[in-house]
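Much of what follows relies on a compact textual record of a protein's fold. With that in mind, consider the following protein and its fold in token form.
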Amino acid sequence: MKQTNVFYQHGTLALLVPGLLSGTLTMKELLQHGDTGIGTGEGLDGELIILDGVPYQADSFGKVHVIGNDFSMPFANIHFADFKFLTSLKDADPEKFANAALSGKTNANTFFSIRVRGSFSYMKTRAVVKSSRPFDTLEETAKKQSIFEKHNIEGTLLSYYSPTLFHGAAVGGFHNHFLADDHSIGGHVLDFKLASGKLDIQLFDTLEQHLPVNNNEFMEHDFSKDNIADAIERAE
């Protein structure tokens, strides 16, 4: 039975900060825990979005690929989709989107996902250039990114919201990825304008946090030396 109340996360954003970018979970393993999600590949190899059980990678060249079972990741979020209609929006920027997703509240104390299917008058995304060993820090690696912009595009924005309490384990607040219906643009969302669309929400009462305990670099790293919160905010 699919547990639609569970938000599954492999790795943490904190482990990316010092450059622990090795792939420690395969896509085949990840898809055992859901059919909808986001993530990144080894060495921050592009930006991932999983829709209807199909994993897509938006790479730094602006191409979108379906990726295979052996693709490995240092960090990913996934769940089994069971979205419920929340509201419709028109002429919405990220602030208006966030307010609608939070139903007017200033914060939320649990994890949830928002799926937006609609027409975007503007979309701005990024994808990081894949790095090789020895990996740089998250901030240094994220500087080598490609920026993409499109106007008047149909697509799906997939967002995960994490409570501020969990910032470091995940992104406190909203973490948004996008995929155009025609696959002409995808990636981590930097800005957008939603012309019109439908917001669906899925609330989670359980976080399943999976850590790469078989990776020596992770197990031996001293995270007390890392300025995790600030580094994530600058990189995201």
User: Anything to note?
Assistant: The chain has a mean pLDDT of 94. The chain has one domain: 6-235.
